[in-house]
UniProtKB/TrEMBL annotation:
<comment type="similarity">
    <text>Belongs to the cytidylate kinase family. Type 1 subfamily.</text>
</comment>
<dbReference type="GO" id="GO:0005524">
    <property type="term" value="F:ATP binding"/>
</dbReference>
<keyword id="KW-0808">Transferase</keyword>
<dbReference type="GO" id="GO:0015949">
    <property type="term" value="P:nucleobase-containing small molecule interconversion"/>
</dbReference>
<keyword id="KW-0547">Nucleotide-binding</keyword>
<dbReference type="GO" id="GO:0036431">
    <property type="term" value="F:dCMP kinase activity"/>
</dbReference>
<keyword id="KW-0067">ATP-binding</keyword>
<feature type="domain" description="Cytidylate kinase">
    <location>
        <begin position="6"/>
        <end position="224"/>
    </location>
</feature>
<keyword id="KW-0418">Kinase</keyword>
<keyword id="KW-0963">Cytoplasm</keyword>
<dbReference type="Pfam" id="PF02224">
    <property type="entry name" value="Cytidylate_kin"/>
</dbReference>
<dbReference type="GO" id="GO:0006220">
    <property type="term" value="P:pyrimidine nucleotide metabolic process"/>
</dbReference>
<dbReference type="InterPro" id="IPR003136">
    <property type="entry name" value="Cytidylate_kin"/>
</dbReference>
<protein>
    <recommendedName>
        <fullName>Cytidylate kinase</fullName>
        <ecNumber>2.7.4.25</ecNumber>
    </recommendedName>
</protein>
<dbReference type="InterPro" id="IPR011994">
    <property type="entry name" value="Cytidylate_kinase_dom"/>
</dbReference>
<feature type="binding site">
    <location>
        <begin position="10"/>
        <end position="18"/>
    </location>
    <ligand>
        <name>ATP</name>
    </ligand>
</feature>
<dbReference type="InterPro" id="IPR027417">
    <property type="entry name" value="P-loop_NTPase"/>
</dbReference>
Amino acid sequence: MKKITIAIDGFSSTGKSTLAKQLAKQLEYVYVDTGAMYRAVAFFAMQNKLIAADSFNKKALIEALPNIQLEFKFNPNLGFAEMFLNGENVETQIRTIEVSNYVSRVAEVSEVRSKLVEQQQEMGKNKAIVMDGRDIGTVVFPDAELKIFMTASAETRAQRRFDELQQKGDTVSYEDVLKNVVERDYIDTHREDSPLVIADDAIEIDNSYLTREEQFAAVLELVNEVV
Ligand code: C5P
């Protein structure tokens, strides 16, 4: 069977990573969560006091980029790869609402994007990869054989993210999660470098009213048409 590149883009909290993980498992492909990479850079910026609610030292972050080493390590117990920042597992730290509140501002910086895009292209050079993010089908792999663009209403997405955070014991309110989802969508779609747009050849899936199983079955059919 032909090995392909599957690009999954879309708005925040549309379930991209759930779908991508299911696909990677089924097809025995590598899964790469590019959002985790932007989140790790944002976490680095927070740790080093380069970003706060009312300030962002972009110049210092750009200068520090050579000192930021990102690596995915597969965890066989979880069945997916975890994000390591300079040798430290930061999988838990990068999923907090604080990181979510800063990540889109960090992801606007062109120097950050070019560093991460280069690493992503390297990871996908042998195909057999499912990568999710915001610019995978447009910038990282414009020649991907299958491009999916996922959407759902902001309220549906905020509710899903809120449930996830609550399960982890995070005491955030639904209103704050919704605000974060709407703000990130705005920054991600309006930034100058690689804004979130649907690629001409992407297939759009609105999963507001689809179960995970229905969505997975629909996308597997699309994969089978291509391989
Ligand atoms: O996918 P996730 O919601 O974890 O991504 C976090 C943020 O990282 C996004 O809101 C976006 O600002 C940024 N991002 C990006 N390009 C990607 C993946 C994520 O700009 N390919």
